[in-house]
Amino acid sequence: MKVTAIISDDLISAVKEYTRGSTVTEAITIALKDWVDLYHVRELNKRISQNPVHISNGQSIREVNRT
Question: Can you give the C-alpha Rg of the chain in angstroms?
Fold first, then answer.
């Protein structure tokens, strides 16, 4: 998809530096993918904290994972 956006040069430079993208398109793509991945991790953490895994009967987490 082709997009036109007005983004400050400083922000683009920082994104290129942190992502090590060789082009603006590559740098923005990497940054957006990383943001989406981080969002999914945060949402998963919220779901887990709302409904944590409880281990009963003296089992270790390793034993639970094996079943």
Answer: 20
- The pTM score is 0.69
Residue of 34 and 59 predicted with greater confidence = 34
Q: Using an 8 Å Cβ cutoff, are 29 and 19 in contact?
A: no
From CA 7, how far away is CA 15, in angstroms rounded?
11
Residue 67 CA to residue 63 CA, distance in Å, equals: 7
In this structure, the number of other CB atoms found within 10 A of the CB of residue 12 comes to: 14
> CA distances (Å), 18 to each of 12, 13, 28, 37, in order?
10, 9, 11, 16
